[in-house]
Design a protein that fits this description.
The complex is a heterotrimer.
Chain A: E1 4-10, E2 13-19, H1 25-33, E3 51-54, E4 57-60, E5 73-75, H2 88-96, H3 105-118, H4 124-130, H5 141-159
Parallel strand pairs in A: 1-5
Antiparallel strand pairs in A: 1-2, 3-4, 3-5
Chain B: E1 5-8, H1 12-19, E2 25-28, H2 34-39, E3 47-50, E4 58-60, E5 66-69, H3 74-79, H4 81-86, H5 88-95, H6 100-105, H7 108-112, H8 119-122, H9 164-170, E6 174-179, E7 182-187, H10 188-191, E8 210-216, E9 225-230, E10 241-249, E11 255-263, E12 270-271, H11 273-279, H12 286-296, H13 308-327
Parallel strand pairs in B: 1-3, 2-3
Antiparallel strand pairs in B: 4-5, 5-8, 6-7, 6-8, 9-10, 10-11, 11-12
Chain C: H1 14-18, E1 34-40, E2 46-52, H2 54-58, E3 62-66, H3 68-71, E4 102-103, E5 109-115, H4 118-127, E6 129-134, E7 158-166, H5 169-175, E8 178-186, E9 189-190, E10 198-203, E11 210-214, H6 219-230, E12 237-239, H7 255-267, E13 271-274, H8 277-283, E14 286-287, E15 290-298, E16 304-314, H9 325-332, E17 342-349, H10 364-381, H11 386-393, E18 402-407, E19 413-416, H12 421-432, H13 437-446, E20 450-462, E21 467-474, E22 480-484, H14 493-505, E23 512-516, H15 533-560, E24 567-570, E25 573-576, E26 579-585, H16 586-594, E27 610-616, E28 621-634, E29 639-650, H17 657-677, E30 708-712, H18 731-745, E31 755-756, H19 760-772
Parallel strand pairs in C: 1-13, 8-31, 11-12, 16-17, 22-23, 29-30
Antiparallel strand pairs in C: 1-5, 2-4, 2-6, 3-5, 7-17, 8-15, 9-14, 10-11, 10-13, 15-16, 18-19, 20-28, 21-22, 21-27, 24-25, 25-26, 28-29
Classes of the chains: A alpha+beta, B alpha+beta, C alpha+beta.
């Protein structure tokens, strides 16, 4: 089937790509832009590894057809550390030991940031439920909860 | 995944027009189910018509009801103030399903059109009458703990996986359609079919018909409504059994009105009309809740792996109604 | 400078992973690389009459469709024969690179397609027409002995039977005050690293050699096996990129590994294969399917006199490596207890199911489950507190080191090197509030809620030898590199090794680069399994760093004209203590020891500021843990919620407690999955049915409570660091503790649990059965 050209904003920069209708967002990022932070693990929207923000909302990139990206704003994990400095959530993940193999980590960080955008001061239960679409087999869940709470504090300090 | 044509429709008429251009056409909502099935080669459309460009509003209706456009995201519905206040059962049901990422993508129309999670439906090496009529069903003699106990047939024992639809069934939602022959509407409880000998035909939609909106009629007592879901995992898991309920108890402690629907038990969201009938006018007591549950599950049939759901469904019905009765100050 | 050993420092691995710049195998893109997909068996057992590849070959973008006959052209053997270290007869149990005219489990690779991209490869797979002649199969291991052969070549599905034991069980049972029987089943599950398997066979243009980039726990084994089967020289290099978790399943050399590299060699093209999750479900090894029939003999005071019984182990359709798991189970089931006599009859049988090898714990969780269930049974029948029964039977600290009269598979008699089990139990019970639990339980029961508490112990032999490699090298620019055959699979290996190395050289951990799992780095290596690397690689790196330090000291002593004993290491220099202006940089010493052509060389030192140590060990270091789980059970729906969990671990000296926390939490959570969620469903037709992460459920954030971890640090006398392993420790007692807690919660219903996982319908059934009796 014929390729089509899509235009969108990727981590703040306007970009263009020629894609086919059956390509998904993860492939688009990997093959056209060399961004591999969003990865497939289950390919069915069940694990959260392919989380990407489209127009400010977290989606599962493996089920998101690339053609639909036309005209949107896309933010990936690679777009978070502008200027080389880790963002507060990333810092909090390091400080609390909230990951091991790191394969799922970009998805967790993007989701955790979304959570704090919506609920700046979440309790444990909110954190758990919000992150329930992200699987971590190293099972750093307790540390991830600590990290989200630590990041919430960091954000407040920055805001203040 | 097989290559396919992609078109984005500007409005319902254009969508219907695109649909007619190929023999194998599919409307695309959020894609959380359709794209998954396409990746698994279960769905092989020649053309996919993106309908998320259609109107995505939630509107109040004069009589107190609500109209939700089919392209509205599940997240938007669940967080909508009127929904949370007037129809908590709907907000709860949506939030009990899937993950935040999926709810951000999934649309109301797509949720209605979700296909079963039966293992054998997903495994193209297995026999499945839903995938190919007349082929046989490996689930009936197979691994069937998640399968249907109500309304199943000797051709199919699959269940409908939606949580949202269970709430919509209880709320007696109306589904608006647009198709080649024009517009019409159906009650949600009439949209999905029981499997019978044609489990491949899952809804009453006619060829090319598109779901454009869902209306939830006014139901004042739905402010006291709830969704209870029993599942293997405490989050992001499909229901073994779920119950959507709204209860209206008068000041004498009698049931003035009740809405009850079950999920995870049938080929469609299961409106528990027998239980509702048994309860209307009766005292809101645990004993009567139990009696109503028994009435609803009277014809339930268990398979080797799922018979436990019959008693489980009864218990969850009783518990859920008990909880609502307590909240309304009645009940024992 | 504060000591680095024991420091809770951030990991050196972290930053790229956090920024989405980790480099996993799928992230490697090579020019001209083609993609592989596998045609897999839909049948548990069938003969292959023929394979029609024509339609697949006709699909545009398809480069080749290959079966075993094609691959055999570049292979020395159609079968992936290994040496049977255990001596078990495994000639007819080894894998094939692709099906050899017969398939014996659903998911077995039959043919492979090479295409321009993964879509085309997969579409072509669907076009490969395999003509199957379906055969009788065995799906239930209990029917394996008398069932039809799982493959034509076999006369029996039983690989072997053997006895594991010691002491006089007959006497024990004859003199026992009580004998209790118990039948148990632990069901199979998967490792399910979030990164699936995958590898790239890169054909190097420059020298024609092959570099294999593999997501593996055992780079050297993979290299040697590929060299043997494909008749390659050492120009075949295996490199391990970032690995997104292993948990056991990535330690085998698989059919796909050999098939992809063979195809690359045959086609002279670089090839990539990335497994999808459905493939992982049916083709990466499973573990835990074991049936136990046990009896325990106790005296009037509940002291164990003996245990006897049978263990039936399902090893699936092939053995990718020696099936050591049931030996692990039987030989270690006595755990932390004084057990005078043991006799277990082990049977290892094959079924038409996915092959079985290690998944986090490797036989130990089943053993702990068996032992702890028996002790709960004794407590119940004798009306004693479960903790008290354990206390009476735990090995007292005074008896350490404690000899178990049974051999580990290295042939060395099992000797617990150190630990204080009763003290561990006492502490964890105190923290978990064991003594006042009955009061809390009684109060909540009044309100119709069912709380329960349970405990379990686990002892894990860690640091499996015979060695691991550790090479420390300092370069002319002062950079320090550690090479090891150990594998970095996400557990923080680089940080641990860097801490150990840097600690000897007066450096910070981030000054040390660690290269793991690269066969060009060190010639020997065993890899990541059996909670072994901190003990084995850690010891080697420690000794190598020490040796490098000694060398540097010797040269510096010469250069600075100072006594070696007066020298110290700091900031990349060797300096005179108390006179830091008298110093020489490590980079300078490295330059000198690299030699200059024809010029002089310091006397009495070997060339190179480097040392390579393969620290030898046969004895295992025994780590121990005691866990207490508190649960609430919904007696109506069978739902279980873990409300509190306390895990005490003694893994000797801890290198980095933050990473150890992560290991324990991960291990416990795997145990939560095993106890409550993870059910690898097969139907009676031998078809795997739970092949998505929606059907096979891994624990999510909502299933895991805030775990409390406590540590004791009893040094191991067996290695220079005093360390013991930790990777699997959390998993071992977890399911046993949780099941004990559930049973305790449902005591009013007389519920007795004999299996894992235990899911709602089973609990509902047990509650109903209990009510009836």
């Amino acid at each position: 089937m014929t390729a089509r050209t899509i235009h969108f904003t990727l981590n703040g920069a306007p970009v263009t790509a020629d894609i086919k209708p059956h390509h998904n967002l993860v492939e688009l990022l990997q093959t056209h832009f060399g961004l591999t932070g969003a990865r497939e693990s289950c390919g069915q929207g069940l694990c959260g590894c392919c989380t990407v923000l489209v127009d400010g909302r977290a989606v599962s990139g493996c089920l998101f057809l690339a053609v639909r990206i036309d005209g949107t704003e896309v933010v990936t994990i690679e777009g978070l550390d502008a200027g080389g400095k880790l963002n507060p959530m990333q810092e909090a993940f390091v400080e609390t030991g909230a990951f091991q193999c790191g394969y799922c980590t970009p998805g967790f960080i993007l989701m955790a940031n979304q959570l704090l955008d919506a609920h700046p001061d979440p309790d444990d239960d909110q954190i758990r439920h919000y992150l329930s679409g992200n699987l971590c087999r190293c099972a750093a869940y307790p540390q991830i909860i600590d990290a989200v709470k630590l990041a919430a504090k960091k954000r407040k300090t920055i805001a203040a | 995944m097989r290559p396919f044509l992609y078109e984005k429709a500007a409005d319902a008429a254009e969508a219907v027009h695109f649909f007619a251009q190929r023999a194998q056409a599919k409307y695309l909502g959020g894609g959380t189910n359709l794209v998954d099935l396409m990746r698994e080669n279960i769905e092989r459309p020649e053309i996919v018509i993106d309908v998320t460009g259609l109107s995505r509003e939630i509107r109040d209706v004069d009589d107190g009801g609500l109209v939700i456009d089919a392209g509205t995201k599940n997240t938007t519905v669940a967080s909508h103030r009127t929904v949370r206040e007037r129809y908590p059962v709907l907000a709860q049901a949506i939030l009990a399903g899937a993950s935040a990422q999926i709810r951000n993508m999934a649309t109301v129309g797509g949720n209605l059109m979700q296909r079963t999670r039966c293992y054998y439906f997903y495994d193209d090496a297995a026999r499945c009458n839903k995938r190919e009529r007349g082929k046989g069903c490996d689930a009936i003699e197979g691994f069937n703990r998640i399968h249907a106990i109500l309304g199943a047939s000797s051709h199919c024992v699959a269940t409908h996986p939606s949580d949202m639809c269970v709430a919509l069934a209880a709320l007696d939602a109306i589904v608006y359609l647009e198709g080649p022959q024009g517009a019409r509407h159906l009650r949600l409880v009439d949209l999905h079919r029981l499997p019978g000998d044609t489990p491949d035909i899952e809804t009453e939609l006619r060829a090319g018909e598109l779901i454009t909106a869902v209306e939830i009629p006014a139901l004042p007592f739905a402010i006291r409504s709830t969704y209870r879901k029993v599942r293997d995992r405490s989050s992001y898991a499909f229901a073994l059994v779920s119950v959507a309920a709204a209860l209206d108890v008068d000041d004498k402690g009698n049931v003035r009105d009740v809405r009850l629907a079950l999920g995870g038990v049938a080929h469609k969201p299961w409106r528990a009309t027998a239980a509702e009938q048994a309860l209307r006018g009766a005292p809101a007591s645990e004993e009567n809740f139990r009696r109503a549950a028994e009435a609803e599950l009277k014809d339930a049939v268990g398979l080797a792996g799922n018979a436990f759901k019959i008693e489980l469904a009864k218990r969850v019905i009783v518990n859920t109604l008990q909880k609502l009765a307590m909240e309304s100050g009645a009940g024992s | 400078m504060p000591p680095l050993i024991g420091a809770r420092i951030p990991r050196i691995e972290d930053e790229p992973l956090l920024r989405g710049r980790g480099r996993f195998v799928d992230d490697i893109l090579l020019p001209g690389m083609l993609h592989v997909a596998f045609v897999r068996s839909p049948h548990p057992h069938a003969l292959i009459r023929g394979i029609d590849m024509s339609a697949a070959l006709a699909l545009p973008g398809v480069h080749a469709v290959l079966d075993l006959n094609d691959l055999a052209k570049v292979m020395t053997n159609r079968r992936m024969v290994r040496h049977s270290n255990s001596g078990m007869p495994l000639e007819k149990a080894w894998l094939f690179a692709l099906a050899n005219g017969e398939v014996s489990y659903v998911g077995e690779p039959v043919a492979l397609v090479v295409a321009c991209d993964r879509y085309v490869a997969e579409d072509a797979c669907a076009l490969v027409a395999v003509d199957y002649d379906v055969q009788a199969y065995v799906a239930d291991v209990r029917k394996a002995a008398n069932g039809p052969p799982i493959r034509r070549e076999l006369t029996s599905n039983v690989i072997t039977t053997y006895k594991v034991g010691f002491g006089d069980t007959d006497a024990a049972f004859n003199t026992a005050a009580h004998v209790f029987k118990q039948e148990l089943w632990q069901h199979r599950g998967g490792a399910h690293s979030i990164e699936t398997r995958g590898l790239i066979a890169e054909l190097r243009g420059a020298d024609g050699g092959i570099t294999v980039h593999a997501s593996t726990q055992k780079a050297h084994d993979l290299q040697q096996q590929l060299m043997t089967l494909l008749d390659c020289d050492e120009s075949l290099r295996v490199m391990t990129p970032d690995v997104g978790g292993g948990f056991g399943a990535k330690l085998c050399v698989y059919s796909e590994d050999v098939a992809v590299v063979a195809a690359a060699k045959l086609l002279k093209r670089s090839l990539k294969w990335i497994e999808d999750r459905r493939e992982y479900f049916t083709s990466a090894v499973h573990e835990r399917d074991q049936y136990w029939t046990l009896e325990i003999a106790v005296d009037t005071s509940a002291k164990v006199l003996g245990i006897r019984g049978k263990l039936l182990h399902d090893t699936g359709a092939y053995t990718p490596q020696d099936p050591n798991i049931p030996y692990n189970s039987a030989s270690t089931m006595s755990g932390p207890y004084v057990i005078p006599a043991l006799a277990i009859d082990v049977t290892i049988a094959m079924t038409n199911k996915t092959p079985v090898s290690s998944v986090r714990g490797a036989g130990y969780p089943q053993a702990a489950f068996a032992m702890e269930r028996l002790l709960d049974h004794v407590a119940r029948e004798m009306n004693l507190d479960r903790a008290e029964v354990r206390r009476r039977n735990l090995i007292p600290q005074a008896k350490m080191p404690y000899l178990k009269p049974i051999k580990a598979r290295s042939g060395v008699t099992i000797q617990y090197d150190s630990g204080d089990y009763p003290a561990c139990q006492a502490e964890v019970l105190k923290v978990a509030g064991w003594d006042d639990f009955p009061k809390r339980q009684a109060e909540t029961r009044k309100a119709g809620r069912y709380l329960g508490i349970g405990l379990a112990h686990g002892v894990k032999g860690t640091g499996r030898g015979p060695f691991e490699s550790g090479l420390v090298r300092i370069s002319r620019n002062g950079r320090v590199t550690v090479y090891t055959g150990a594998a970095a699979i996400g557990q923080g290996l680089q940080t641990a090794m860097a801490q150990i190395c840097a600690s000897e050289l007066g450096l910070a951990a981030e000054d040390v680069q660690v290269v793991a799992g690269d066969t060009a780095g060190v010639s020997l290596g065993l890899g990541a399994f059996a909670s072994r690397q901190t003990v084995t690689a850690g010891s080697s790196v420690h000794l190598a760093a020490k040796s490098v330090a000694e060398k540097a000291r010797k040269v510096a002593s010469h250069l600075l004209e100072a006594d070696e004993r007066d020298l110290e290491f700091a900031n990349g220099e060797v300096r005179v203590a108390g006179a830091p202006q008298l110093s020489v940089k490590l980079s300078e010493i490295a330059r000198i020891l690299q030699g200059a052509p024809g010029y002089g060389f310091p006397p009495g030192v070997e060339p190179g500021l480097e040392a390579n140590v393969n620290h030898r060990t046969d004895a295992l270091s025994y780590a121990n843990g005691c866990h207490v789980a508190e649960v609430e059970v919904d007696a109506e729906t069978g739902g279980v919620r873990i409300v509190n969990y306390v895990a005490l671990q003694d893994s000797g000296v801890l290198i980095n407690p933050m990473m150890v926390d992560g290991q324990i939490h991960g291990g416990v959570t795997h145990g939560i999955g095993n106890a409550l969620l993870e059910w690898m469903g097969y139907d009676d037709a031998g078809q795997p049915v739970t092949t998505t992460l929606a059907d096979y459920l891994l624990p999510t954030a909502t299933d895991v409570p805030m775990l409390q971890t406590l540590y004791k640090e009893t040094p191991s006398p067996l290695n220079p660091l005093g360390v013991k392993g930790v990777g699997e420790s959390g998993t071992i007692p977890a399911a046993a503790a949780i099941v004990s807690a559930i049973e305790n919660a449902l005591e009013p219903f007389g519920v007795h649990i004999a299996q894992t996982p235990i899911r709602p319908e089973k609990l509902i059934e047990l509650i109903r059965a209990g009510k009836r009796s």
